[in-house]
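FORM 7B - TANDEM STRUCTURE REPORT

SECTION 1: FIRST PROTEIN
SEQUENCE AND TOKENS:
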Amino acid sequence: MKTQKLNTKITISNNSRFVQLFTAIILLSFLSLTSCKSDKNDESNNEPDGIALNERFANNRRTAVQTFQIDAATGGTITGEQGTKVIIPANAIGLNGAAVSGNIDVELIEVYDKASMVLQNMSTKGRKPNDDEEALKSAGEFFVNAKQNGQQLEVLTNITVQSRGLDPQNSELMNIFRAGDNLEDTDLWQEADENQDGINDVAQRGEGPGPNGTFVLYSVFDMSSFGWTNLDIWYNFPGQLTDLFVDVPNGYNGDNCAVYLSYDDEPGLARMDIYDTQLEMFTEHFGRIPVGKEVHFIFISEVGGQIYYAIQAATIQQDHTEEITNLQPISQADLTTLINNLP
């Protein structure tokens, strides 16, 4: 049986009700999809971004690196923008156990103020030999490194670091602490034994020429390897100690924000780096916070490329719980000023 081909032509006028209805449906569907996509992007942009915050910390460290060039065979002294000196003896820097010759690049970071400690994520929190964690008083944190043609070098003979001038009213002898060999390290500070004699190293006290013919006090110590070092002493607070809890706003946790505890009128601060997922609060496990101590809590996060912060004053009570409220956007420069103006 032969099948006939049906050839039916349907013609619809452009201004027909059908075309108008069909066009409206397509347009509405498109707008709905676009709106959903836009809402999703807006929602994502309003979420705290822990990756961006950590990248900000890392970039701040990279930006803080000062680079100097010296001849490795003759050695030399470099002086940082904030007054730190690094003294490198002749033939003290090498590669695979042998001294190198020619120019080398010496890298230095100086961290003396609380804002740099926060924004470079290098708080003065240390780990004791018994694994307890406690805050430290700092007279300066330093990163020192050397490379030649981009290749990592090593210390063959101890180099010397001299801190900037000390406040005569707060010029205690400081111990030496280490916190990792690489720029990116975030280890807790631990007592150093650069001389490998089983004793925590203590910085020496010196004095030298200052402005207008005066003399300034400084600390000086030896480094046996490159990386992070710190001039510190343990707080060792007398009196009653307590646990501390920090309740952050909904949506914030240990992955997307940072909380620091700044002790008033003390040179240093500690990061609250433990987040209890059951309590949904930051805490610390050793009960080392002094009751009655006046402090400031510093909260920082990043949302859509914008820093959000809170700074709250408090006096520590027994079993203290601090609720972080009223987050505000701020520039990094303005946050630096606020933190460094804290007592």
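SECTION 2: SECOND PROTEIN
SEQUENCE AND TOKENS:
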Amino acid sequence: MSSRVRRSSLSKAVKLIFLRTCEFLGLFHVSAWAFRKRLHILCYHGFELQDECAFRPQLFISPTTFEGRLRHIAKRGFAVLPLSEALERLRSGGLPKRAVVITIDDGFKSTLSVASPLLRKFGVPATVYVTTYYMDKQVPIFRLGIQYVFWKARGRTADLSRLSALVGGRASPDLWIDAATGMWALIGYGEALGTEQERQELLVRVAQELDVDLSPLSERYLLSIMSADELRTLRSRGIDVQLHTHRHRFPSTDRTVACREIEENRIRLKEAVGVTARHFCYPSGLFDTVQWPWLEALGLESATTCLPGLNRSDTPLYGLKRFLDNESIECIEFRAELAGFSEILRYLRKVLSFGRREVVSATD
């Protein structure tokens, strides 16, 4: 274990002890009362079907952990609202105490098979932001597929020079000094290819070279997006379907491309579920305020980010904050977030960080 990993583990352990102590002292109850009129928006991505939580614990969450989150929400009496209703009531001042919105990004197939039965079990609504390129293709997401193959092949001895041949000599030999740089060279090469068929063929060849079984991706659809039929089924179960761009990109430097991404996304979702979507989630949470007039011109009512925090009546509707929950988040961290205690910690870190900058500036 590297010294960096040890420091990270120690820091995490200290944080958990601190949070448990604060909860024991009743500070969570104090913060919950103080922030009772703020809106919590939770963010999820994929739900584990096989080994995704081990592969990407910050992207996926297990059914057991997700059910535990929903049980905590129900036990503590949170009011889980549909996104549209929550935003309307936030603006009008009619938000109920301890209001929560559940959002799910991307639209992995596990949203239908794992998340929707649990949401129905607890009787709570949710919004799914769907990217539609892979909805149409019905193949594994290429970038995640390559990462998954390299993760499955970890610890094995591989001749990376054989992998370099797959890119036709277009990547610098310096990129093949280790598996990580080689992996990103393959991803970059593949994403520059002209067709998805070429990318999927490259994924298969990489898996063959690394002796990795791709059947979990092709048979269990670990890294695939729901089809149009599956989206219709999801919506019939009361889950809202909204915008996440067509190709999971929303450049701040090109309005034409950015708006086309949303327009194409909206058309595909309208064809799939019969409703015109008006709420948006920035891909990877990346945004710039220069994009806000574009969203307004497209008639969008809101946009969610990946910035942590609670939402107030004056929070910009195109800059809504969310808490990214996943398998790497401990239960006590989740409880701290919903109690509003993490909001206090974020404020204190901001104040202390500003103070440190002032000291540095004064001594320059």
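SECTION 3: OBSERVATIONS ON SECOND PROTEIN
The mean pLDDT is 91.
The beta strands are 39-44, 46-47, 60-61, 79-80, 99-106, 127-130, 240-243, 279-281, 302-304, 323-324.

SECTION 4: SIGNATURE
Preparer initials: ____
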